[in-house]
Amino acid sequence: MAKTQYNADSITVLEGLDPVRARPGMYIGGVGQKGLNHLIYEILDNSVDEHLAGFCKEIWVTLEADGSCTVEDDGRGLPVDLHQKGVSAERVILTTLHAGGKFDHDSYKTSGGLHGVGSSVVNALSRYMTVEVSRDGLLYRDTYERGIPTTKLEKGLLPVVGKSKHTGTKINFLPDDEIFERTVFRADWLKSRLHETAYLNPELTIHYRDLREGTQEEQTFSEPEGLRAYVASLNKGQETVTPVIYFKDSYEGSEVEVCLQFVDAFEENIHGFCNNIFTQEGGTHITGFKTKFTQLVNLYARQLGLLKEKDDNFTGSDTRNGMTCVVALKFPEPIFEGQTKTKLASAEAATAVAAVTGEKLEHYFDRNVEVIKSIISCAEKSAKIRKQEEKAKTNMLSRSKFSFDSNGKLKVCTSKDPEKCEIFIVEGDSAGGSAGTGRNREFQAILPIRGKILNVEKASIDKVLANAEIKTMINTFGCGFSEGYGNDFDITKLRYHKIILMTDADVDGSHIDTLLLTFFYRFMPELIYNGHVYVSMPPLYLVTPKGKGGTPRYLYDDRELQKYQKEHDPSTFDLKRFKGLGEMDPPDLWATTLDPERRVLKQVEIEDARLASEVTEMLMGSDVGPRRQFIYEHAHEAELDW
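-> structure tokens emitted (642 positions)
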């Protein structure tokens, strides 16, 4: 029960780095795998900022054998002289939020580590951190445990531990297992980020090493061709329609760099960056580019007589279908939405990008008329298909009008508040019956689906929309869907803020989850980006001690079972394996999978949109070769269901 008095004594002030440890999600987005890898990116961004300032040419990133990570650069080195607070400036930077050179416009004109909290946040969330600074021929060292300094200063200054012939900063840290769910870094996410950074900085070289047991990998990322190489990589294996178009220019203190190319595909693939930070959710810089590009295509289409006076303009999606594009903006004092910087909000960024795009592309198209004609041809094809699909969709939906309970088996909840409501997508009528009986009818809805849904990665849009299970989900969620030829999706109309996949804990269940996630990612990606999609973790086993007084216990995987069997005599308990959710009694299902107080859910996240798209296409697409190679390379990671 809350205290009845609310006064000055009720206010808690968290000093130093305490707020970070109390609410880590506010600073790194969460304590799952995405947040864990984000620790590396925060330190990496500081080294990249040194490169942008003109003082760093090489960065070394190492995943150490003990599970820690080391990031080293050959920049100027963190300042170690006495700060006005009476201690070394390095100590201030590592222990104080919003302290750093990013607020000094003479030190950094543009910066990815905008808020001055990155390194101190990593320090706060690490079991230990060691910092070595090489400056002025000397080597300085400082150490921390969970953000608390453990090195004694001498008159406020760091101790000198040796001499150095170079300059730079080296930071080694081990994530705190009291904070994070797991402390094992994802190497594929990290390598993708490092490669991306190399594309964006053609004069920077990044050395990567993984020294963890069973890995032992080294790789160097260097891309002298920059964005041109990036776009070529994104379009690898595609039939190109236009040459690579590249331009770069400054506008009122900002630097705009864009590279694009059209391929024979009806989808757009646009990646935005601001100060080397990937803006996963886009933002004003992407809006500025899209708006100006659409205006230019329609302008040239009319000037060339390819759009008549009576014809409607091409839509934005028409003009960009087939486009692969990277927009990289260097912008002083950008405004992001959130510390994790997934969306740029600076209004001036749209103006800068639109101005440079308009000037440079007009200059290019005037001299390369055949290229703009090819782009307009892509837009014409897209518009034609879009109109056909809109007509087909209208006819289909008019023939298939169904009620809110679209397949007759949706078990609705009584609450109409989307923030409180959650829907479980379950496999089959049996599981639907158990879940329907065991749920809390006030806020939990149950949607049974019939087996495995269509693999949307291999299907055309008309087949996707004709699929009964997919139509049911679109209608039930209430927010429409996104697709290359248009966008009817409106997340404000979403009826359930938790969409939970609840399938059997076996291979078939995992396959159904994969098909559903592929559908969400391709047709409703905003559900994932906004954190609405979850996967339930039903138990595999129930162990019941023999005799009186024993408490039954649910075990969620084979590892838990093996551990239990080692700790208990097999003759002292009975073991039951659940073959499916339909076998579980409603009370068991509530206790293990439905009860918000006791259940275990995995939230679906996307760390790297480009990598996610590539892996989805590889694993769910039609090309067998890359999928077979992936299986060979990752077979040792599989958890076999015996």
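The first strand starts at residue 58 and ends at 63.
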